[in-house]
Structure to design on (242 residues):
């Protein structure tokens, strides 16, 4: 894999005269896990869409680009807020959808291994309608990891999971995406405190960084003192921003 690039955004996004995001500046460091939180509607998903090249219908007055000055196209995997599973494909076919779209032979062995890691090995032949919400989200996570890209954009990837499964999937994602550039949108301060090497809060006033200095490597234990302290500070900041 080529070295993952850092990400840089500056500017404002509008649609039909409405402002969706900004003006704001933010960076996600190369090879690091950055968490992004903030009140609903401040433009977090819009920011991910800009980096994923999905903002054609929007007007970006500024730039959303890789810091190595090479195109982001082909280097990004997006796990969107809605799982986007195609209802007529099986779970395994959904995981390998990217390969199919690129007219590559799907690697079923790799897909099955990832499905086993997200706990869906026995459901690989089911259609999405026969999965629970949490199972669908895990299938979408497997599809994102299957893409094996240097940059991962994760939009509330664990929001439908129970506490124990969420912790397991956080551990899995931290392991699979180690060394990649990850920009992870979440509403959960405890999740950001576990996974964020950098933690950013987006409000109408701009971006603010919540320090994690001295925190251990990720994934951090959910009940470690440093994790709980960061969760508390972050929760307080989000309450102030509401
Ligand atoms: N295609 C669009 N056209 C017009 N407005 C849009 C469009 N998509 C999103 N918006 C608006 O842009 C703003 C930012 O939306 P976005 O989904 O990026 O916010 P968010 O911070 O991710 O919110 P949440 O935390 O609720 O997921 C919202 O006010 C939303 O209503």
């Amino acid at each position: 894999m080529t070295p993952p690039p850092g990400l840089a955004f500056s500017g404002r996004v509008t649609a039909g005269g409405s402002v969706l995001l900004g003006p704001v500046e933010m960076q996600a460091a190369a090879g690091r896990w950055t968490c992004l939180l903030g009140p609903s509607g401040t433009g977090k998903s819009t920011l991910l869409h800009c980096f994923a090249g999905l903002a054609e219908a929007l007007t970006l007055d500024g730039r959303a680009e890789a810091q190595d000055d090479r195109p982001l196209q082909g280097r990004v995997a997006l796990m969107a807020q809605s799982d986007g599973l195609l209802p007529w494909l099986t779970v395994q076919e959904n995981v390998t959808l990217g390969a199919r779209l690129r007219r590559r032979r799907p690697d079923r062995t790799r897909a099955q291994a990832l499905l086993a890691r997200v706990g869906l090995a026995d459901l690989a032949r089911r259609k999405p309608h026969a999965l629970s919400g949490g199972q669908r989200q895990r299938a979408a996570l497997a599809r994102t990891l299957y893409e094996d890209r240097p940059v991962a954009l994760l939009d509330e990837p664990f929001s439908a999971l129970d506490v124990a499964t969420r912790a397991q999937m956080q551990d899995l994602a931290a392991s699979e995406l180690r060394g990649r550039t990850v920009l992870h949108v979440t509403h959960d301060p405890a999740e950001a405190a576990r996974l964020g090497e950098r933690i950013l809060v987006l409000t109408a006033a701009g971006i603010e960084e919540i320090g994690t200095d001295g925190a251990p490597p990720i994934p951090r234990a959910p009940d470690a003192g440093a994790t709980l302290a960061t969760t508390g500070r972050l929760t307080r900041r989000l309450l102030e921003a509401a």
